[in-house]
Amino acid sequence: MPRNNHLYELRNRKLLLRLEYYCNIKEDGVTKHSYEWILLQLSREFYLSTKRIENIIKHTKTKIKI
After folding, report:
1. Could you tell me the CA-to-CA distances from 64 to 7, 8, 35, 43, 61 in Å, in that order?
2. 50 with 2: CB under 8 angstroms?
3. Tell me, what DSSP letter sits at residue 29?
4. Which residue, 63, 65, 54, is CA-closest to 15?
5. Do 43 and 49 form a contact (C-beta atoms < 8 A)?
6. Residue 21 has what pLDDT?
7. Spatial separation of the C-alpha atoms in residues 3 and 8, rounded to whole Å
């Protein structure tokens, strides 16, 4: 069965939006959650390993500061 790259792109866009959401949560001007917590949370939400999520973030051009 051929791979449907459109579905992977859609998943990755949703993942990056959730990443941006978690990175923008601030308390007293400081990011509330650590990078490790964010990776773990995303891995739970998208049923992927933390290593896979790091690769998606690393290989996608994003403006999010982590």
Report:
1. 22, 20, 12, 18, 9
2. no
3. T
4. 54
5. yes
6. 95
7. 9
Q: Which residue has the tokens 């791979």?
A: 3
Which of the two residues, 13 and 2, has the higher pLDDT score?
A: 13
Q: How many CB atoms are located within 10 Å of the residue 15 CB? A: 20
Over residues 14-57, the pLDDT tens digits come to: 999 999 999 999 999 899 999 999 999 999 999 999 999 999 99
CA 13/CA 23 separation, integer angstroms: 15
pTM, to two decimals: 0.82
Do the beta carbons of residue 3 and residue 45 sit within 8 Å?
Answer: no
Per DSSP, helices labelled H in 1-66 are 5-23, 35-46, 50-58
Cβ neighbors of 17 (< 8 A, separation 6 or more) are none
